[in-house]
Design brief:
It is a single chain. The protein is an alpha/beta fold. Helix content is about 30%, strand content about 25%. The protein has 16 helices and 26 strands. The N and C termini lie far apart (about 60 Å). The longest helix is centred in the N-terminal third of the chain and has 17 residues. Helix 1 crosses helix 9.
Length: about 500
């Protein structure tokens, strides 16, 4: 039985040593090279006496960064990925939290790393860490002592207080996730992944570890291509990419601008999406372009080790419908809890809570926020049992499928009515000529502000919405933009929209 994520690597390197494991189109590493480099880095860490510690990996997105991740794990440590595209203030908060003894850098990040407060830690180049002799005996002893509740990584999510939260995941939860995700999406040795997310998000788990499990291949797609849809699809075709697991905004960036009229992704057979609601108008464009592909909606928070629910799309949806998030992966349960702590009835809204092996260890060096989010299951008073409260609101539809409604903090009280901003966005997305839409709310002035990309003029759109929305849901201000801002992970950046609004 596996109790360490690197068991996948140790097994596959014997079967497919020379097959390409990870590539960005310029640099490629075979499974044998990943295995060798990770063990060299692990031996380097062992010589420095670094064991069961957070090891910061501060490198540009590349196959070498992946090898550094595995090197930290092979040495009995856990990796903390950061990236130059993060704000400097956020990087410093992360470094202050983890107090890592070592920051592994590449040539492009080394000087930047040294400019931060590293405490008792030091910055070293990847080339130095990978160049030493491998100590097989020491690494085997480290592996013998490993258990499945040891951490694998810490990834940082945004905190409501402005202080990022470091989610620590263990081998047990990551292995469970990879096994269940692979079963649901039917990965195999012929899978060629196209990775969209930065490597400092847990979203990359969907590609990095199934690649090891099956001896598949992952292409780390350059970020700049996601602003040039035609070249992005051409990249998919060049490398015969047949499987993508992307945030919705990355997909709609392609479909909303007529890309498929120029080029279509010829090899795609598996399309998984999540993190945002997929506008049905845009989803239909994708499905019409790829009639033979499977489409699966995924849902899950970082605190639940990646995705925890799925829905294979096999029926048609009206434009005012939302694609369900379906049902939980095997070996986890979703509880819809009301504010009173009881299970929500059919059609009744409740907070989506997760129980099972998928739960992460909590927030690193943050017991207070861990205790707030990871709580005792109120339905079980007989023994300790943690659940994670996602802060998401859901309901069960008449077909027995779980449907995402909104974030708890995305509901507003406006003109005496409880409103979901997402409902306004869905109605805007249905209007011909609209490519994308996002709403924010000014609580002080009690105003709904709608930003959109599309053909209708602002006054024209406002008039159209009067025929679709009740008066209390109508935006108080409508602003047309050339493009919407996106976060590093490809989601619509509502924080940036709010700052734009506040700046006038």
């Amino acid at each position: 039985m596996r109790n360490n994520v690197l068991d996948y690597l140790n097994e596959i390197v014997k079967e497919k040593p020379h097959k390409t494991a990870y590539s960005d189109g310029t640099v490629s590493l075979s499974f044998l090279e990943v295995y060798g480099q990770s063990r060299s880095i692990a031996s380097f860490l062992h010589r420095k006496g670094i064991y069961r510690k957070p090891v910061v990996i501060f490198m540009k997105k590349s196959p070498l960064e992946v090898a550094a991740f595995f090197g930290a794990v092979a040495a009995g440590n856990f990796y903390v990925p950061i990236d130059e595209e993060m704000p400097a203030g956020r990087i410093q908060l992360i470094l202050d939290n983890v107090q890592s003894p070592l920051v592994i850098c590449d040539e492009s990040t080394f000087e930047t790393a040294k400019s931060f407060r590293l405490g008792a830690g030091e910055a070293v180049l990847f080339g130095e860490a990978v160049s030493g002799e491998i100590n097989d005996a020491a690494l085997e002893e480290i592996r013998r002592r490993a258990i499945d509740t040891d951490p694998v990584y810490i990834v940082f999510t945004s905190g409501s207080t402005g202080i990022p939260k470091g989610v620590a995941a263990c081998h047990r939860s990551v292995i469970d996730y990879i096994e269940r995700l692979s079963e649901v999406l039917e990965f195999d040795g012929d899978t060629v992944f196209g990775n969209q997310s930065p490597l400092y998000f847990d979203a990359c788990l969907k590609e990095l570890y199934p690649t090891l499990k099956f001896g598949a291949t992952t292409y780390l797609i350059p970020r700049e291509l996601f602003s040039v849809p035609v070249k992005l699809v051409e990249y998919l075709n060049t490398y015969h990419i047949n499987t993508i697991c992307w945030v919705v905004s990355a997909l709609t960036m392609i479909s909303a601008f007529g890309t498929f009229e120029t080029v279509t992704p010829k090899f795609l057979r598996t399309v998984a999406f999540g993190s945002e609601v997929f506008p049905i108008k845009q989803f239909r464009i994708w499905r019409n372009a790829l009639p033979e592909a499977s489409f699966t909606n995924l849902y899950g928070p970082t605190e639940g080790t990646g995705m925890c629910c799925y829905y294979r799309v096999e029926r048609e949806f009206a434009e005012n419908e939302s694609i369900p998030i379906g049902r939980p992966f095997p070996n986890r349960e979703i509880l819809l809890l009301t504010p009173e702590g009881r299970l929500a009835g059919e059609g009744e809204e409740g907070e989506i809570c997760i129980r099972g092996t998928a739960l992460t260890l909590g927030y690193y060096n943050d017991p207070v926020r861990t205790a707030q989010a990871f709580t005792q299951n109120p339905l079980n008073t007989a023994y300790p049992e943690r659940i994670y409260r996602t802060g998401d609101i859901g309901r069960i539809n008449p077909a027995g499928e779980l449907v995402f409604v909104s974030r708890k903090d995305y509901q507003i009280k406006h003109m005496g009515h409880r409103i979901e901003l997402g409902e306004i966005e869905v109605n805007v997305d249905m209007i011909p000529g609209i490519s994308m839409a996002a709403c924010i709310y000014d609580e002080k002035k009690a105003k709904i502000i709608l930003y959109y990309v599309g053909d209708p003029a602002e006054k024209e759109l406002a008039a159209l919405l009067k025929t679709k929305l009740p008066r209390y849901m109508l935006p108080n201000k409508t602003v047309r933009l050339e493009s919407l801002p996106f976060t590093a992970n490809g989601k619509i950046d509502r924080v940036a929209l709010k700052k734009r609004y506040e700046a006038g």
